[in-house]
Write the structure tokens for this entry.
Amino acid sequence: MQTYTGPWTKAEAAHLLRRTTFGATNQQILDAVSNGMNATVASILQIPITDEPLAFDAGELIVPQGSSWVNAVYPANQAQNQQTENARFKSLGGWVAKNLNQEQLCIAEKMVFFWQNHFGVTATAESRAMYHFLNLLRQNALGNFKQLMKDVTIDPAMLLFLNGATNNVFSPNENYARELLELFSIGKGNQIAAGDYSTYTETDVAAGAKILTGYTVTGIRSATATQATASFNPILHDNSSKTLSYHFNGQVIPAAGANEYANFIDVIFNQNQVATYICSKIYRYFVNYDITPAVQSDVIAALAQTFIANNYEVLPVMQQLLTSDHFYDMSVRGAIIRNPLEMIMGAMNPTQTIPNFGLVGDYQTYISVYYVADTMGQSYIVPPSVAGWMSYYQAPAYSKLWINSTYIKKRFDIVSALVYSGIPIGTNVLKMNHLGFLNGLSNPSSAPQVIDDICDVFFPKAIDPADKLTLKLILTNGLPDFEWTIQYNDYLNDPTNTTYFTPVTQRMQALMNVILKMPQFQTI
């Protein structure tokens, strides 16, 4: 796979930022052009620490408003316990949306979502455990995947989600062992015989279930424990030797107590198919759902080789991918339809539309945004299944599944509300920052340049000149370009005068309402 050596313009920089963040401003794109590809990629490949979610809802009965609840107990009373959990779920959902809207210009949020989709864990047990699981994904987002796989295996949220906490020698449960092989590590190949999937067999699932016995979880919604905790109980562990299938060379996993699960994972990772499977998922998420034979042999194989050579470190793989010639190929630009959160944040982030309503108002806004995405098929912390969202694995449609008659109407409705009247949330209204966005463009007084910049920000490919002309006519209300220049400069000279800023705002509203409903905006 060749390194990209072609032109580095706004088109390439915007493509990189569009795929690795939830939305960049025009200035951030220009900065990326100035900095060059290598420096920009190096800067993007960072995982900053985020603040913890804070209590804001009246249902939180333990910690005061504005404090973190991630290591706080629950009320002993059952009704109050549930009330507090409901409040914490809203705080967690709001925190997720806040992270997406106020992300630093880096790949962190895209990587965390990638791993959340990969593992498919839901917040059904308790929000504390879910927060710590998401934080585990963040801390290891670009780290060692083999170690992440081990950590996830005995994470309380995962143990609860896939019945690992009830898997014991007296009643082995194959749920996690099956998903570990089928979805999380080596992948389910083509079935070549009864119970044989070309990468593992049912024998391996049964052996894996025994290997993974003995872990339990305590402290769920506890009035005394500040966290849900996983622990190993040797009495509940199957101490027999487990023999794997011919796919793993008939390897025997001897009894090793609390470390046995890690030994099993090491054996799985000895198979090169693990690297191929994970790199294929990375490719589908960051590049294109269509893995052709040429992509498989030239791109996926190269990424997998890098993955193996670096002992399953994710960072070198992403570095190679984001600086590759293939990543910037015109054929992959605009190939992926935005998921609901990418659509919403793709409108908010480039326009710097950020709530500023105080702690409670901001969290109420963000949980509302979270629920809006839910109505379009994406509840971030409650994936539809252990396989994640169908849009990332269901052939042949893949990301096209985000668009149907119901979802597209909801997309248009949210755009209209955001652009015009705003979205009422309690006593606050979330409204697009039209003038702030306009003022941040390269030359706001030039109608053609405004259209060029907006197209650069929101569209993955150049649009037809006739469409650009139509957009410019919407901005200028059909008047000559110089009329826009006069109108904008009048506003700039007296920005608080409603006589001047109102018509400029109205023209931007009309323009953005069209821009964000165009088919080109629905893709990245």
Remarks:
- Residues 307 and 317 are 6 Å apart (CA to CA).
- The chain is about 50% helix and 5% strand.
- The radius of gyration is 25 Å.
